[in-house]
Every structure is written in C-alpha cells, then in structure tokens.
Specification:
125 residues, alpha+beta, six-stranded antiparallel sheet, globular
C-alpha cells in the first residue's frame, strides 16, 4: 500500500501527464457557428492568435487543451486530468469537432464562458 504522497494518481496537480479521449459529438446546433468562426479566424489561429466565437449563453463553463489529429475522424484527445468527463463542456467538444471538420490539426486551448457564451480558441505552442 502506498501513502497518498507517494501515489502519483492521488493528486491532479502531480506531474503525471494524463489524457482522455472523447468522441466527436457529430450533432450540435452550434457546429455551424463554430465552423464559420474557425474558418473566418483560421489565419489568426495559424499565426498563434486567439479567436473568439460568440454562442448563446449557458452550458457548462470549461477549459481544455485538445489535440486534433488528422488520422482520427472519430475522437480527439484532451490533455490533462479530467475529474468528471460527463461535465466536460459540450461546446468545447463541438469546437474540437469544428476544428477537425475545418482540417485544422494540432494542439489547442479551448475555453467556454457560460455567462457570455463565448468560446475562445488558441493554438497551444
């Protein structure tokens, strides 16, 4: 038996790198707006700038580092520890799907603010 301070999985702030795979939603009322916003902001994203896409208020707030691979049309990866995958923001999942659909691959930080409805996306260096 290990003590909590010896168990790397005990604390989410440990140095252990973890990731979770999520399936792309494949259905959402937000996909059109997110694809349009990503397409319009593609040059800014490629230059390393943040883009903002306004959606209606609500949903789960959240932030995640996602990895979009051209080789996997079904799933994307979220880097870091996810405490409750059921509460991981659906709008972030849809934004990941929109990136894949717009053929923009790599590692991105996506955040959703439930009060404003704004989804922000930035390439993670």
């Amino acid at each position: 038996m290990t003590r909590p301070e010896e168990d790397e999985t005990h604390d989410a702030s440990s140095t252990l790198e973890a990731s979770t795979k999520f399936k792309y939603p494949r259905e959402s009322k937000f996909i059109g707006a997110l694809r349009e916003g990503i397409n319009a902001g593609k040059p800014r994203l490629e230059e390393g700038h943040l883009i903002e896409i306004g959606l209606e208020q609500g949903g789960y707030a959240g932030k995640g580092t996602v990895i979009i691979s051209p080789d996997d049309p079904d799933e994307f990866e979220v880097a870091g520890v996810i405490k409750d995958s059921d509460r991981f923001s659906r709008r972030i999942r849809v934004a990941a799907w929109a990136l894949f659909e717009e053929k923009i691959y790599g590692r991105f930080i996506i955040e959703h603010d439930r009060e404003s409805g704004i989804v922000t996306i930035k390439r993670d260096e």
